């Protein structure tokens, strides 16, 4: 057998991995014990963290990639895929997670961003990435950069679903509008979306009193010129228009706390659900985890959602988004 | 013809759409249904168990009562196809991972399965196979299982790197890879002609 014919980390292999998670629940865990509870409850994957978002929010300071030793303990404990988070733009953290064999990397706004200008060029990696988005523009940029999965940003660590709902509705509405547009209009949208990559070059140019003759052939991100980026975003947008949805799996995340929250996000068109603080900040994690898995499976059966929501105990306490000092969703455009 | 795709978790839509496409290309009049509740599998002519997480899919089909119906319909001779996680679920014998997670198998296919046989996602790949009855085929392996041991009645349809990755035992078809992720309808056509 000619092993040279093996093709690793192709777009099909990366996007395919994300598709295998569909209809499932991905749970935040901080220990091997929690990971086993998640697996036993029927989670399709776990997100290995140093602290759940609610605790990251409470403790403040800089939130970074979790200790690889901790992540490895979790990888050794369960048979389902293990994901872990890196700071936005932090190539070295991402390479380290790839080196230990994490199954998917979440380039996450829940951690403190490392790069004020750019996200990681995810096509350079063999391991697939998931990224947060709160609008079609953010989603399309991340997909162009190579993300194999998108999730709503929501507002992590709040136990308040309102922001996840906002982001899912905004993306759905934008796709609906896009379907009515011709190629010229879509190209204009691609040009608008490309502006997010100009923060660094235009900032530098400003310091030069705009003496740099700034055109489409300027390299603005990795090896890509502005024109190449616009063309790339245009291609992603055309695909979104053609299939009427994002070309990668789109999960709900950031504030999902109850089985009914999870069912609601599925009704809004999510392909699956991330539950962060919601499970291990509830009074009965085992029962809560199972109930959320079933709610996602039977999201369109109100009687099932009602039955599994009975006597679950206390959900995580939760926070009103308007009382927050820090909005994690504003990180990484 | 009615084809049921077990839809509790995994890449269900992909199987539904490629099955519809295959029916059309074969000129067969039929419908493809997604199943998350009892009562549909028993009225179908063929069943597909998709890729996903075998631990999750197994839990949910046993809980929902879909598992028993799949076993009954398989025993009556209707074709059943399992791809990746689906292959694990239809197998008779599991490995340490299957035992450790207490994953309950449907025991339809006389094989011993090994989960995540090539490694983690980093080691997932595409490769060209030679499948008996189909020919050269570009297959996608994602944290794929392989068949370590196959019973006498099991026909090996394809191997990769010395490992068994596609088998058929009478009306049961098991694949390590994901025919639903490509545009290639030949495997689904092969399966539908088993009906």
Tell me what the structure shows.
The complex is a heterodimer of chains A (333) and B (195). Chain A has helices spanning 11-19, 32-41, 53-59, 68-77, 91-100, 136-144, 162-178, 183-194, 199-207, 226-243, 259-267, 277-280, 285-297, 302-309; strands at residues 7-8, 25-29, 45-48, 82-87, 104-108, 129-133, 149-152, 219-221, 224-225, 249-251, 273-275. Chain A is an alpha/beta fold and 333 residues long. Chain A has an 8-stranded parallel sheet with strand order 10-7-6-5-4-3-2-11. The longest helix of chain A is centred in the last third of the chain and has 18 residues, at 226-243. Chain B has one domain (2-192): Rossmann fold, CATH 3.40.50. Chain B has helices at 12-26, 54-64, 66-75, 85-90, 96-100, 186-192, and strands at 2-6, 31-35, 46-49, 80-83, 91-93, 109-114, 125-131, 135-141, 146-150, 155-160, 163-169, 172-175. The mean pLDDT of chain B is 97. In chain B, the strands form 3 sheets. In chain B, strands 2-1-3-4-12-11-10 form a 7-stranded mixed sheet, with helices on both faces. In chain B, helix 1 crosses helix 6. Chain A binds chain B through residues 1, 3, 5-10, 12-13, 16-17, 19-24, 39-40, 42-45, 75, 79-81, 98, 101, 103-104, 126-128, 293-294, 297-298, and chain B through 7-14, 36, 51-53, 55-56, 59-60, 63-64, 84-85, 97, 100-101, 115-116, 119-128, 140-143, 160-162, 178, 181-182. Strand 1 (7-8) of chain A pairs antiparallel with strand 7 of chain B.
Describe the structure in brief:
The complex is a heterodimer of chains A (333) and B (195). With 333 residues, chain A is an alpha/beta fold.
Pick out the low-confidence regions of chain A.
none
**What is the level 1 CATH name of chain B?**
Alpha Beta
Which oligomeric state applies?
A: heterodimer
Specify the structural class of chain A: alpha/beta
| Run of helices and strands of chain B | EHEEHHEHEHEEEEEEEH
List key phrases describing it.
heterodimer, A: 333 residues, alpha/beta, 8-stranded parallel β-sheet, two-stranded antiparallel ribbon, 14 helices, 11 strands, B: 195 residues, Rossmann fold, 7-stranded mixed β-sheet, 6 helices, 32% strand
